[in-house]
């Protein structure tokens, strides 16, 4: 689980930036892009603080 | 804009040079600058360019040059002195000008920080109000317009003030975590807005941009900011930090002056990409909704949905919080016996009251210019003292004791150009961001001349 967290956190960033690009290239709708970005936000803001704490300790 | 990272550093080695073992690597500075300059207020500045009728070409090229000049100012004016003297701005200034002048500087700094924090609270409140359908002030509103928005601002401000008063380490940590995400959300906003503009060439984009200006200015095409005005704004919106030497407190931790190049990250991510993205957001809103109201919350919500609301709240919160904390510290330095908790809480209350006035956030460009005009000349005093009085000798500075508690030459050199500049800005309508450079040069020259007549106000032991 400890090794998985940084990957999931980074996935959050990918899910934040990728959907707008896919919308830009007409691959997905804007609504879909907005929904995926919410998951990206939850992943990053939820997991990155834990990862940071691990780094500090 | 001020940052949590700064506040965490100024509390250490406040009255001694930073030792070699405490110096930090370059990566810390690159990361800090990138995060620091992606603040809530960036959502306002790009749209204000559109409302001021700036052409797209002037935005792209003006910001390119202006930000480069800002980076060069950090690299060649601030960082070299910081990495040799290794003192905070406050202690450095105290050695030159005496304790009481630092108190006056702190007072000015604290009041200006309150305005800045107020603007950030307003920005956050525009996003918090969306789910509750709270009417948001328009670009013509200068005074508080409706009770619901005022209550929202008071609520947001109260939370920020209480967290700042309790100490903000956890917020600072959260801000560090949020920074990369916020940068990507800004980028995402720009990409979505560009798609919503539905253009396929530069000519189409430029034409649509000009149409947006005509709509926003209700039929006029008045360009209130030229290419050089944009250059000067980009250069001096952080004048207090680079030529004003406030970032001596940051770069005293740098191993080498070349770390000054790290400001590139802040300038070209926050003050280029984020401003352009935010400007596109307003252009897209005008195209889709025929609405030229530059309110960050609804603009970001339109492009990236719920993520946009969170980003505006987080961007405003994570920057308002340390700003209030630092303003509180500045005030507390004036009355040291008062409790920091109470001072910060009162400071937060004042900032929140400022935040209820939409005028502050809608006149952000002017405010940022005034901020630089008032504070940056102090950097000229430090510059002249360092190169002409001390000849770049750090030992001389470290061994010096303030000769008097109040240096009149420094006060005159600071107040004369600032007073004249603010008068000119008020009477002749000169944009405030045009003034930091002449003010800085005049302050340096006056101090140099007065110093020659009165002799240096410091003694070396």
Uncertain stretches of chain A? none
Strand content of chain B: under 5%
Overall 3D shape of chain B? globular
Largest binding interface between chains:
A-B, 22 and 20 residues
- CATH topology heading of chain B: Hydantoin permease
Number of strands of chain A: 0
Distance between the termini of chain A: 16 Å
What does the model show?
The complex is a heterodimer of chains A (57) and B (461). The mean pLDDT of chain A is 93. In chain A, helix 1 packs antiparallel against helix 2 (30-56). In chain A, 30% of the residues are buried. Chain A contains two helices and no strands. Chain A has one domain (4-56). Chain A has 57 residues and is mainly alpha-helical. Chain B has one domain (4-366): Hydantoin permease. Chain B contains 21 helices and two strands. Chain B has helices spanning 4-10, 26-36, 42-51, 56-85, 89-97, 99-128, 147-165, 169-197, 202-216, 227-236, 248-251, 263-289, 296-304, 306-334, 340-355, 358-362, 364-375, 377-389, 394-399, 408-428, 436-454, and strands spanning 400-402, 458-460. In chain B, strands 1-2 form a two-stranded antiparallel ribbon. In chain B, helix 5 packs antiparallel against helix 6 and helix 6 (99-128) crosses helix 13. The radius of gyration of chain B is 22 Å and the shape is globular. Chain B starts with a helix and ends with a strand. Chains A and B meet through helix 1 and helix 2 of A and helix 8 and helix 14 of B.
């Amino acid at each position: 689980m400890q090794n998985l967290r940084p990957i999931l956190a980074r996935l959050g960033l990918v899910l934040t930036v990728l959907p707008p690009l896919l919308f830009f290239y007409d691959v997905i709708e804007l609504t879909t892009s907005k929904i995926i970005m919410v998951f990206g936000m939850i992943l990053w803001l939820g997991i990155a603080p834990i990862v940071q704490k691990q780094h500090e300790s | 804009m001020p940052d949590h990272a700064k506040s965490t550093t100024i509390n250490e080695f406040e009255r001694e040079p930073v030792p070699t073992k405490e110096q930090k690597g370059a990566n810390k500075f690159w990361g800090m600058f990138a995060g620091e300059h992606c603040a809530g207020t960036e959502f306002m500045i790009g749209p204000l360019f559109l409302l001021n009728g700036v052409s797209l070409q002037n935005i792209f090229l003006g910001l390119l040059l202006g930000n480069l000049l800002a980076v060069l100012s950090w690299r060649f004016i601030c960082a070299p002195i910081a990495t040799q003297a290794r003192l905070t701005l406050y202690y450095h200034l105290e050695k030159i000008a005496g304790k009481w002048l630092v108190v006056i500087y702190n007072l000015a700094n604290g009041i200006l920080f309150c305005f800045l924090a107020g603007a950030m609270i307003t920005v956050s409140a525009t996003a918090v109000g969306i789910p509750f359908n709270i009417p948001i002030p328009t670009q013509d509103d200068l005074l508080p317009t409706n009770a619901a928005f005022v209550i929202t601002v008071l609520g947001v401000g109260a939370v920020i003030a209480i967290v700042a008063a309790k100490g903000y380490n956890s917020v600072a940590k959260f801000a560090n975590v949020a920074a990369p995400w916020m940068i990507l959300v800004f980028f995402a906003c720009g990409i979505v807005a560009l798609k919503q503009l539905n253009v396929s060439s530069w000519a189409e984009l430029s034409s649509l941009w000009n149409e947006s200006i005509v709509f926003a200015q209700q039929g006029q095409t008045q360009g209130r900011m030229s290419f050089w005005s944009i250059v000067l704004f980009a250069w001096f919106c952080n004048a207090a930090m680079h030529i004003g030497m406030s970032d001596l407190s940051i770069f005293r931790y740098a191993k080498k002056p070349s770390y000054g190049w790290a400001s590139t990250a802040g300038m070209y991510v926050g003050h280029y990409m984020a401003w352009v993205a935010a400007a596109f957001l307003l252009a897209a809103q005008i195209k889709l909704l025929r609405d030229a109201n530059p309110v960050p919350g609804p603009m970001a919500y339109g492009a990236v949905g719920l993520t946009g609301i969170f980003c505006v709240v987080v961007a405003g919160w994570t920057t308002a919080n340390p700003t209030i904390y630092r303003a509180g510290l500045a005030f507390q330095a004036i009355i040291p016996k008062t409790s920091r908790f109470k001072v910060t809480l009162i400071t937060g209350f004042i900032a929140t009251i400022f935040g209820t006035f939409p005028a502050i956030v809608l006149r952000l460009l002017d405010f940022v210019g005034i901020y630089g005009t008032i504070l940056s000349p102090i950097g000229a005093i430090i510059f002249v003292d360092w190169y002409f009085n001390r000849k770049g000798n750090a030992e001389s500075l470290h061994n010096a004791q303030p000769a008097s508690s109040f240096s009149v030459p420094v006060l005159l050199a600071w107040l004369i150009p600032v007073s004249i500049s603010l008068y000119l800005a008020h009477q002749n309508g000169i944009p405030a961001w045009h003034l930091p450079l002449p003010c800085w040069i005049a302050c340096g020259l006056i101090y140099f001349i007065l110093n020659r007549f009165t002799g240096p106000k410091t003694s070396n032991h």
